[in-house]
UniProtKB/TrEMBL annotation:
Top enzyme category: transferase
Protein name: Release factor glutamine methyltransferase
Methyltransferase small domain segment(s): 105-192
Molecular-function GO term, any one: peptide chain release factor N(5)-glutamine methyltransferase activity
EC number(s) reported in the record: 2.1.1.297
Species assigned in the record: Halolactibacillus halophilus
PANTHER family: HEMK METHYLTRANSFERASE, MTRF1L RELEASE FACTOR GLUTAMINE METHYLTRANSFERASE
Binding site for S-adenosyl-L-methionine: G122, T123, G124, T125, G126, D145, F172, N189
TM spans (from-to): none
Pfam families recorded: MTS, PrmC_N
Keywords: ATP-binding, Methyltransferase, Nucleotide-binding, S-adenosyl-L-methionine, Transferase
One biological process term in Gene Ontology: methylation
This protein's encoding gene: prmC
Role description: Methylates the class 1 translation termination release factors RF1/PrfA and RF2/PrfB on the glutamine residue of the universally conserved GGQ motif.
Length: 285
């Protein structure tokens, strides 16, 4: 007998719970496998599942439960700023904190319409650069990454979402420096986790997110130090710098910025949980 959608969901919830995984993953995987909206899913819980769909679903649930492979690697996508982005093993899975970085940056750009040339450093899936371009079409957006595989994903996302973003293969801002380019805004969610924190991370993160996008030398500060130093050659005198940071890096990142840009204003912004998660630098306040 074919199991109903509800029976499949019940099985998944129990299986995930036994393996100390979030039960919600079962519902999300079912919706993906069935190709339904959440409302359609809820309305069809008593419908039987096709055997091939059930087998696919069961395999995904078991894989996630036993290995920790992220939901997004099983579905190949993640939502960011109400848009669907393709993700792969070569890209960092977009996080909610990064949506807040976009929100605050857009607020600042509304107050500073003269800032139009933007570069997203370490673009990964392209969520920062692509979202900025789609939310503010007047911006001229470039995005750089050292990973050619990640750039391929970002370019595909930009094409599918019709975002006119220019992509560069670059180690931080080196390509812009070499070609003599300058910008008004530098935004980045760089690698910032110290290698010493590796063992404390969940298996879904340390075993599946690319380490190139996660970890940084110098207690997690190498990426910030490099971008800030290179920004002195790239950022225009009235420019803006926006970083996502680790929860305990506010003082260190602020000090690095003030050392390089002593006349600038540096502000810390909190995420929805009240944690210091973004640092902004303004030169035109």
């Amino acid at each position: 007998m074919k199991p109903t959608i509800q029976e499949a969901l019940n099985w998944a919830s129990l299986f995930l719970k036994r393996h100390n995984r979030e039960e919600k993953v079962g519902e999300l995987l079912l919706i993906h496998v069935l190709g339904l909206s959440r409302l359609e899913f809820l309305m069809r819980l008593q419908d039987p599942m096709a055997p091939e769909k059930y087998d696919m679903f069961k395999q995904m649930v078991e894989s996630h439960a036993t290995t920790g492979i992220p939901l997004q690697h099983l579905t190949g996508e993640e939502q960011f700023y109400d848009r669907t982005f393709t993700v792969t093993k070569d890209t960092l899975i977009p996080r909610q904190e990064t949506e807040e970085l976009i929100y605050y940056l857009l607020e600042d750009l509304n107050k500073r319409p003269h800032l139009t040339d933007v570069v997203d450093v370490g673009t990964g899936t392209g969520v920062l650069g692509i979202t900025l371009k789609l939310e503010r079409p007047n911006l001229n957006v470039s995005a750089v990454d050292i990973s050619d595989a990640a750039l391929g994903v970002a370019k595909a996302n930009a094409k599918r979402l019709a975002a006119d973003v220019t992509f560069w293969s670059s180690d931080f801002l080196s390509a812009l420096i070499e070609t003599g380019q300058s910008v008004d805004v530098i935004v980045s969610n760089p690698p910032y986790i110290p290698y010493s924190d590796l063992d404390s991370l969940s298996d879904t993160v340390k075993n599946f997110d690319p380490h190139l996008a996660l970890f940084s030398e110098e207690d997690g500060l190498y990426s910030y130090r490099t971008i800030i130093n290179e920004a002195k050659q790239v950022l225009r005198p009235h420019g803006l710098l926006a970083f996502e940071i680790g929860y305990n890096q506010q003082e260190a990142v602020t000090a690095l910025i003030r050392s390089a840009f002593p006349d600038a204003i540096v502000e810390t912004k909190q995420d929805m949980f009240g944690r210091d998660r973004m640092v902004f630098m303004y030169q035109d306040v």
